[in-house]
Specification:
Belongs to the RutC family. This protein is of the alpha+beta class and 127 residues long. The chain has a single domain, classed as RutC-like (60s Ribosomal Protein L30, Chain: A, 2-Layer Sandwich). It has 2 helices and 6 strands; from the N terminus they run βββαβαββ.
């Protein structure tokens, strides 16, 4: 079993003792991404639509660094600060997938890192 650390400057650096993602036997496990702009290091949380888009762009960068795409994603976990944002998050999220949607859960949580509104993690596999 080979464990590969995935790291890219095109996504925010980890803000703790963890990796952006780990790839094991062709399966990618990402850490949760929040809306940190990797270029500026600033949070983009003023609007839930833009915040969700930034999170998805960060995940896209991690996927790319691992040689994968959103079509390779098999599982998504979405953590929301407020379930009232579900529809708006879902609309932005859907623009990154075209068919064969991954399995997913969305849960409301009491608090997220840096007091963001949404955090998303993924599992991907290239056949």
């Amino acid at each position: 079993m080979k464990k590969e650390i995935i790291q890219t400057a095109d996504a925010p650096a980890a803000i703790g003792p963890y990796s952006q993602a780990i790839k094991v036997n062709g399966v990618l496990y990402s850490s949760g991404q929040i809306a940190i702009n990797p270029n500026s290091g600033l949070l983009e949380i003023d609007d839930i639509d833009l915040e969700t888009k930034r999170v998805m762009l960060n995940l896209k960068a991690v996927l790319k660094a691992a040689g994968l795409e959103f079509s390779d994603v098999v599982k998504v976990s979405i953590f929301l600060k407020n379930m009232d944002d579900f529809d708006r998050v879902n609309q932005v999220y859907a623009t990154f997938f075209t068919e064969n949607y991954p399995a997913r859960e969305t849960v409301q949580v009491a608090k997220l890192p840096r007091d963001v509104n949404v955090e998303i993690s993924i599992v991907a596999f290239a056949a």
